[in-house]
Amino acid sequence: MSKKLGRSTIEMENAPVIRASATVVGKKEGEGPLKEEFDLINNDTSFSQETWEKAESEMLREAVQTALQKASLNSSDVEFIFAGDLLNQCIGATYGLREFQIPFIGMYGACSTMAESLAMASIFVDNGLASNAVAVTSSHFCSAERQFRFPLEYGGQRPPTAQWTATASGAAIVGTEEVSGMNVYVRSVCMGTIQDLGITDANNMGAAMAPAAAWTIKTFLEDTKTKPSDYDLILTGDLGQVGRDLLLELLLKDNISISEQHDDCGLILYDRESQDVHAGGSGCGCSASVLCSQILRRMRAGELNEVLFMATGALMSPTSVQQGESIPGIAHLIHLSTRKGGN
Amino acid sequence: MSKKLGRSTIEMENAPVIRASATVVGKKEGEGPLKEEFDLINNDTSFSQETWEKAESEMLREAVQTALQKASLNSSDVEFIFAGDLLNQCIGATYGLREFQIPFIGMYGACSTMAESLAMASIFVDNGLASNAVAVTSSHFCSAERQFRFPLEYGGQRPPTAQWTATASGAAIVGTEEVSGMNVYVRSVCMGTIQDLGITDANNMGAAMAPAAAWTIKTFLEDTKTKPSDYDLILTGDLGQVGRDLLLELLLKDNISISEQHDDCGLILYDRESQDVHAGGSGCGCSASVLCSQILRRMRAGELNEVLFMATGALMSPTSVQQGESIPGIAHLIHLSTRKGGN
């Protein structure tokens, strides 16, 4: 049975295991530094569908299917699936998951969705409500671009602070049963509060989300009485370069330095020199695909033992921004470890 | 500690209590049959805001604030809040909840959100992860109309199968501590799977959602080995007249008759004769406001003892409908009882 710790942290008792994970990505992501890490790379980003939205659903569906195959599970072996995405009314997830007939709990956390879903799946498994639960999310550059910004055909210019929405999906299966070899356990989760420091520039999401990331890491360290050096990696979702710098600065005001442990999925997914992604990658699929490929692989290989995965979300819509609202952010955190218990 | 029962039901062990509930509605809802039941009625539906979207956020904020006041709780007494709504990127909830600084878990279940959020809040309380958790959702006729259909100024005609999106918000606080007088307990929850029988008419949401409702009620009865006559009321969220008829018909094929116990929030909220709402009310706020006002009041008064509250959601978007997709539905169920245990 999980235990509440301090303000916002939930500690797992039975250390749920990441039984398998899978990633499906688009062409650009498949040309980046992680190209050897993904399960499937679609070379025209359409996933053989007629529209970008259907392409996103298909990509998410393939990620779940691949994860099930890697874990040698049927969809009927999974009790609950937690999922969401950036598309209006979360149609990436709802249409992508339709065929599986797994009880579905829809989430919305913008780009924090992978951490949010993984947290809920872990809580369900740890409390005996599921022996297997899936967490999955996605984003697609083309569906996001026309929904949040301009149709691709418009060819709008992007400022240096802008980030590149990843065409990617990542799925993870959390379960009770250990796998052979090194296991990755979910040790605790920390759920964020909404933070809003008044950023109104929708082309600077990293800055809008950094205060939420600072709140969550600070709260988690307090709740667990741990320090940054207890972790090998503190990984944010998609702050990009601008948001990362701001996060480090905000934490330093509270005398917390994470610069040695910190990295950001938005800075890992692409080669910023050659791939023209400006401040870095973004989108639900950015952190999901980096976590579910390289990070979990490196943990299983014993290269990383204690990882804090913290995905951040900007809780705005094009409508709220047009109406002059500032951009609230949120960050949820997952403590992953190759050790089942103790410190 | 909650217990998984059968395919998709989760039984509470400690019978979490609904400590308080609150409803805030618009003018039309305040002129309907439930006008004496609501906590706040806003007479111009703008909630003193400049836009319909901000009005919806303000309405949701007021519902949470009123529920907290009724339970004599501060926001710092609430460990987690589960919320979502119909607006793109759920901005009704995110902007409405920003000021409370309660750890926030964003949900998306379309019009099933009240049941989905209440299920998650109950699971958290039952497993000792929160002593108080809030479930809240909202919908606003004007923000929904322009997002899903046409701007109000267009004056589009509505077919007889169309439903009327309620301007309403309902919030419920689930907790461990009983209140004075009659208590309402959450006894179990049943999470739905996505059902899609191929309906493509976005003006006939009731029909699109009915198969999901049928799946969930059937699964719940099987999982709990109970029958419709064990309940005083089986309440769907917003099927309206067309969806209700279809639900009864679908269940009869499985030899399940709920016609004596069944009612629908979409048929309770308005006077269909005089209020011109066609097939009935809809929107996340429809079932939330009916549950959190009349239904819980009648339970506390001992008029109803065993209630199944099942909210249904249509998991489409205007984009998916325009692209020719059919409309998947989902339904989540909450078993509420004035009895703490036993049958």
Automatic annotation (TrEMBL), chains A, B:
Family matches, as InterPro entries: SpoVAD, SpoVAD_sf, Thiolase-like
UniProt cross-references to Pfam families, sorted A to Z: SpoVAD
Gene3D superfamilies tied to this protein: Stage V sporulation protein AD
Top-rank taxon, per record: Bacteria
Molecular function via GO: acyltransferase activity
Protein name: Stage V sporulation protein AD
Taxonomic path: Bacteria, Bacillati, Bacillota, Clostridia, Eubacteriales
